[in-house]
């Protein structure tokens, strides 16, 4: 074994190696410190806001605060739409877990319908799991108490207090106030995510038109929670802004009187203040209970409303319309004066039958020839001959121009959504629907008595009548008179547009006013309506036919099936020399304007001017002796619309005007319903009908013929 070799140490090399290792270690330490410092800087500075937000989100939860919906009052401050305290059940799916784990037990505490459960499931599938979903609205006090005891058993299920909409007068204002309903996905798209906490939105009527003003602005509360997510206290809030309160121009007492005046008849009526355009009362009958819709109407209730042939949900004033009949004669007479074709004293000789030059067919008056007739007599005695001749001489182009000037063929601007514009007869309107057939002179002639392709709403009729009453100002009709943004805020008048003028000739307007006043005097068609009245009124009766005469025989509407009887109309104002109210009344199946619509208007006048409420006794059959008789035209109206030289069989039924398609069934549809026994249905609760009359069917289109009234 060789000798051991001895290893000598090199202190200098070892020292150098140590320094190198120490430097490397120090570098790593420095880098680590720098990295840690940068990390802390990133957490504390760069991402401070993000982590603070996350931390606060774990500790603080935002709870939306739904504002109180604005109240709606009548002109005297009586509440028409109110908010009442209520409870609902909200469920947060992400916290509650699977439905089958908690729903059966919860159903033992709270009555849940299949509709409630299905609606919840649909919303749960369509929304995010962390957002609360309403399971049931309007939980009773007993159910709320039972749930509160066992609340701890149901994580993610909350009993929430809120204000529920209530309509104290329900059916009375169904077509004016409208109703709110539960918000759906389409509503949210329109309203925006900022209103996701809201549960209801306006669906119809004032509630819909003024939705943005009524709903207010959603606020929120900051709620501090513990590690289990249970609330511990409020640490801040942004208050909700309540909706604006609205005061309507409608008078509750007059609204009641208007409904009572109709008795068992269906129809519509509007009363306005001609000085301002304010709507004093407005009804569409029958109505319906709007409270049924607030929290979701049941299938049975909704089916009952939809199957009712009287169409209670159809707003006849806003969406309906039909031939105005003789109620437009005062305005047509004014057009004749302003166009220079007539003066108030000009007379035409009514032989009882007007002929278009070159044609043998005639257009008859109801009671034969009226002799020499000026403007005032033509209005008061409703002489058709005067208006046949005037319309023919005016020509359809000029006729249309004046009728549009008086507000027909366009919305009145009332603050309700979906208003029907109506139709003024014209070649252009007809050409859009029948390009193969031109305009016939006979169509111009019957347009002069408010028949043919006319569609006029009660709103348009009362607006034109109010313009005659107030001296020529065509004002915007409106329901909301004042609003206030906050309970302590003062009421502010809602501004209205400047009215337009229907005429600048005071003498012409005065002649028309005198003709309407003479209508209500002995010899006029409305004389029987004002017996015993301590005030002077002015008016015009009207009747729109639904079925033509047979041969040369004029039909008594009371001999017809109930659903084929004529529409009865009346327009007027009072007191005549200083009008404070103007009305338009349309009675479905009423027979004659003077005997059905006129008495209703008289009761409305009495209620407003005298404070006399109508007696709620049953409506009797109209009296045919009041002067409203159907004009015995020389040939069916189908012949009147045909070119010269074309004949029509004597028993050919008059064609239904395509203009009267809004909200009405065709005559063929009515015949089918009658064949099924629908007209004699025994369901007395479904259809409102006068004593002794069969239940009524929806209005059919009137034939194009018009009486002298």
From TrEMBL:
Transmembrane segments: 21-41
Keyword list, A-Z: Carboxypeptidase, Cell inner membrane, Cell membrane, Cell shape, Cell wall biogenesis/degradation, Hydrolase, Membrane, Peptidoglycan synthesis, Protease, Transmembrane, Transmembrane helix
Lipid bilayer topology: Single-pass membrane protein
Gene Ontology, cellular component aspect: plasma membrane
Molecular-function annotations in GO: penicillin binding; peptidoglycan L,D-transpeptidase activity; serine-type D-Ala-D-Ala carboxypeptidase activity
Active site as annotated: 326
Occurrences of domain Penicillin-binding protein transpeptidase (ranges): 267-605
Enzyme class: hydrolase
Pathway(s) it belongs to: Cell wall biogenesis; peptidoglycan biosynthesis
A Gene Ontology biological process term: peptidoglycan biosynthetic process
Top-level division of the source organism's lineage: Bacteria
Location of the region described as Disordered in the Swiss-Prot/TrEMBL record: 673-709
Low complexity bias (residue ranges): 679-691, 698-709
Penicillin-binding protein dimerisation domain residues: 66-234
EC number from the UniProt entry: 3.4.16.4
Pfam families listed in its UniProt record: PBP_dimer (PF03717), Transpeptidase (PF00905)
SUPFAM superfamilies named in the record: beta-lactamase/transpeptidase-like (SSF56601), Penicillin binding protein dimerisation domain (SSF56519)
Stored InterPro entries: Beta-lactam/transpept, Beta-lactam/transpept-like, PBP_dimer, PBP_dimer_sf, PCN-bd_Tpept, Penicillin-binding_protein_2
Catalysed reactions, as listed in the record: Preferential cleavage: (Ac)2-L-Lys-D-Ala-|-D-Ala. Also transpeptidation of peptidyl-alanyl moieties that are N-acyl substituents of D-alanine
Localization in the cell: Cell inner membrane; Cell membrane; Membrane
Family named by the database record: Belongs to the transpeptidase family. MrdA subfamily.
Reported function: Catalyzes cross-linking of the peptidoglycan cell wall.
PANTHER family found in the cross-reference section: PEPTIDOGLYCAN D,D-TRANSPEPTIDASE, PEPTIDOGLYCAN D,D-TRANSPEPTIDASE MRDA
Entry protein name: Peptidoglycan D,D-transpeptidase MrdA
Organism: Lysobacter silvisoli
Gene name of the record: mrdA
């Amino acid at each position: 074994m060789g000798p051991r070799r001895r290893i000598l140490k090199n202190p200098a090399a070892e020292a150098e190696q140590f320094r190198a290792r120490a430097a490397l270690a120090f570098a790593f330490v420095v880098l680590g410190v720098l990295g840690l410092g940068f990390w802390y800087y990133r957490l504390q500075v760069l991402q401070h806001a993000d982590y603070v937000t996350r931390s606060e989100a774990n500790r603080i939860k935002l709870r939306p605060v739904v504002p109180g919906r604005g109240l709606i009052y009548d002109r005297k401050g009586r509440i028409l739409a109110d908010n009442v305290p209520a409870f609902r059940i909200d469920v947060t799916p992400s916290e509650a877990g699977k439905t089958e784990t908690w729903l059966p037990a919860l159903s033992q505490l709270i009555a849940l319908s299949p509709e409630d459960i299905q609606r919840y499931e649909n919303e749960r599938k369509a929304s995010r799991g962390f957002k609360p979903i309403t399971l049931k609205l309007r939980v009773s006090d007993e159910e709320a108490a039972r749930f509160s005891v066992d609340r701890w058993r149901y994580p993610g299920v909350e009993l929430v207090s809120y204000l529920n909409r209530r309509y104290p007068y329900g059916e009375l204002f169904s077509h004016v106030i409208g109703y709110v309903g539960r918000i759906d996905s389409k509503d949210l798209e329109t309203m925006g995510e900022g209103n996701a906490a809201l549960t209801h939105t306006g669906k119809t009527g004032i509630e819909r038109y003024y939705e943005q003003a009524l709903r207010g602005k959603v606020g929120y509360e900051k709620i501090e929670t513990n590690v289990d997510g249970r609330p511990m206290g409020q640490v801040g809030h942004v208050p909700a802004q309540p909706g604006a309160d609205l005061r309507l121009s409608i008078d509750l007492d007059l609204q009641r009187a208007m409904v009572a005046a109709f008795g068992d008849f269906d129809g519509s009526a509007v009363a306005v203040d001609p000085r301002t355009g304010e709507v004093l009362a407005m009804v569409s009958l029958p109505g319906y209970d709007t409270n049924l819709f607030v929290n979701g109407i049941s299938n049975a209730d909704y089916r009952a409303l939809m199957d009712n042939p009287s169409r209670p949900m159809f707003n006849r004033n806003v969406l309906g319309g039909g031939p105005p009949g003789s109620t437009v004669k005062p305005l047509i007479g004014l057009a004749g004066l302003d166009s220079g074709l007539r003066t108030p004293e000009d007379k035409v000789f009514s032989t009882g039958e007007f002929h278009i030059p070159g044609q043998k067919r005639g257009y008859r008056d109801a009671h034969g020839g009226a002799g020499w007739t000026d403007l005032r007599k033509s209005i008061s005695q409703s002489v058709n001959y005067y208006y046949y001749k005037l319309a023919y001489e005016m020509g359809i182009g000029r006729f249309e121009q004046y009728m549009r000037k008086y507000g027909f063929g366009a919305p009145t601007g009332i603050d309700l959504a979906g208003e029907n514009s109506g139709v003024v007869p014209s070649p252009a309107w007809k050409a859009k629907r029948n390009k193969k057939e031109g305009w016939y002179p006979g169509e111009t002639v019957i347009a002069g008595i408010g028949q043919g392709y006319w569609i006029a709403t009660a709103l348009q009729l009362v607006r034109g009548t109010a313009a005659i009453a107030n001296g020529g100002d065509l004002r915007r009709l409106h329901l909301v008179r004042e609003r206030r943004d906050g309970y302590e805020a003062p009421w502010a008048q809602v501004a209205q547009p400047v009215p337009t003028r229907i005429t600048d000739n005071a003498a012409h307007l005065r002649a028309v006013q005198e003709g309407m006043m003479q209508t209500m005097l002995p010899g006029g068609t409305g004389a029987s309506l004002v017996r015993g009245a301590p005030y002077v009124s002015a008016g015009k009766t009207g009747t729109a036919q639904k079925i033509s005469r047979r041969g040369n025989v004029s039909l008594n509407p009371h001999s017809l099936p109930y659903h084929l009887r004529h529409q009865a109309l009346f327009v007027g104002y009072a007191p005549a020399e200083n009008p404070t109210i103007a009305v338009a009344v349309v009675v479905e199946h009423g027979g004659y304007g003077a005997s059905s619509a006129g008495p209703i208007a008289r009761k409305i006048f009495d209620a407003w001017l005298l404070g006399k409420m109508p007696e709620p006794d049953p409506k009797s059959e109209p009296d045919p002796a009041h002067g409203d008789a159907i004009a015995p035209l020389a040939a069916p109206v189908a012949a009147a619309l045909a070119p010269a030289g074309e004949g029509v069989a004597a028993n050919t039924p008059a064609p239904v005007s395509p203009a009267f398609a809004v909200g009405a069934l065709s005559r063929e549809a009515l015949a089918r319903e009658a064949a099924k026994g629908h007209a004699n249905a025994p369901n007395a609760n479904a259809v409102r009908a006068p004593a002794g009359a069969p239940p009524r069917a929806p209005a059919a289109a009137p034939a194009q013929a018009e009486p002298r009234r």
